[in-house]
Amino acid sequence: MDVSGFAAWRHAEGARNEDRNREREGRVPRIYPFRSSPSFYLPAIAHRAGGSIVGGMTQNAPLFIDAAFDSGNIEVLSVDGPNATLAIGRDKDSDFFQWFHFRVAGAAGRELTLRITGLNASAYPGGWPGYRACVSPDRHNWFRADTDWDASEDGGTLTIRHQPAGDLVWFAYFAPYSQERHADLIADTAGYPGVGHGVLGYSLDGRAIDVLTLGEGPREVWLIGRQHPGESMAEWWMEGALDLLTDPADPHGRLLRSACRFHVVPNCNPDGSFRGHLRTNAAGVNLNREWATPTVERSPEVVAIRGAMDATGVDFCIDVHGDEAIPAVFMAGFEGIPGLTETQLEGYRRYLAILERRTPDFQTRLGYPVAGPGRANLSMATNQIAQRFGAVAMTLEMPFKDNDDLPCADFGWSPERSRLLARGCLAALAEWLG
Ligand code: ZN
Description:
This protein is of the alpha+beta class. 31% of the residues lie in helices and 22% in strands. The chain is built from 10 helices and 19 strands. It has helices spanning 3-27, 38-49, 179-190, 233-245, 251-259, 270-275, 300-312, 342-358, 381-389, 415-433; strands spanning 53-54, 57-58, 64-66, 75-80, 83-87, 101-105, 112-116, 134-136, 143-144, 146-150, 157-162, 169-172, 196-202, 208-214, 219-225, 260-265, 316-323, 330-332, 392-399. The chain has a 7-stranded mixed sheet with strand order 13-14-16-15-17-19-18, sandwiched between helices. Strands 3-6-12-8-9 form a 5-stranded antiparallel sheet, with no helix packed on it. A hairpin with a 6-residue loop joins strand 8 (134-136) and strand 9. The longest helix has 25 residues, at 3-27. Zinc ion binds next to loops.
């Protein structure tokens, strides 16, 4: 890089540090109990609700629960004082549901009991035992709330108990990654010298499928995330990956940029993300079952991404996901593809061994069953990419729950741990390349 190029890097780095500082400030919970003086207006509400005022508060005033915002999803069945009975809406034109994200207003000082019912019919009932809901006082900091699961109550009920300090509180299946944050990630990253931005195509709702490209090396590396939109940890992972790859001082970033050409698609399914879906796009289609024969009518997102891969070829690919049930980080490979080669398989296994050695958040004991010879589902991205390009491809799964080998009581698996895992994955790639 020449001198003016270095100056531009430093300028960009300064801007990024300012952003980080702002973000750190944002991480400090700004909780002002009763700051909006609920006693000022709650008497009127309590009167309508037939409630009573206790110490300037009412015990029976209704909660206000809504989800008509980016990635919001909840159905309010009933509210009784600080207790609510809820359900999760299905992904449009599909039977999948599991992702929730909603706001509770009028909560201050009260012990909330929120029951999400009917969950035995959710996409992954195995995701609820041992799961704790994510809760935020400010939409920046996401903690875990006391949560119980009872499969025999109201068709499977998750009960969240939480006493927020402020009037407002948000709950979600995992820390959301918003469309606005995605737009900022694209804008910030595309502004770095040496980073290219492209639009691979458009989703059914007309959202761009963004790709960021960087690096000057001969290896074609694709990182794709969030085919399943409710798996928001995938885009937190992408943030960590781009942070490392664009850092002029990071030794792994430097090595990787010289060895590889990176193509990063932080969000393959922006429509499902905005709509508050778990698993599908705007047409109710599971994109990770479209890779054999994608169509512009059902899965233009996959048409766009696979077409771009055909143009570049693929040497190495990580498809980033979250898993509802298994409390661990694990990888799924391509062992069952008909064109499997020893070199490919050895490359995959060697990568896993390096990653397992480098980060205590990754393990190989728990995971999915491995497909038998020739029995791979080629409609899934990892299998299709490994078969189509002879690539070392893999599906990375992070937990919605926690890594039980290294649990965190306050946060469970989190955005920060997702970002750090991305750094571990890229450092492992640097070592793997030799
Ligand atoms: Zn997934």
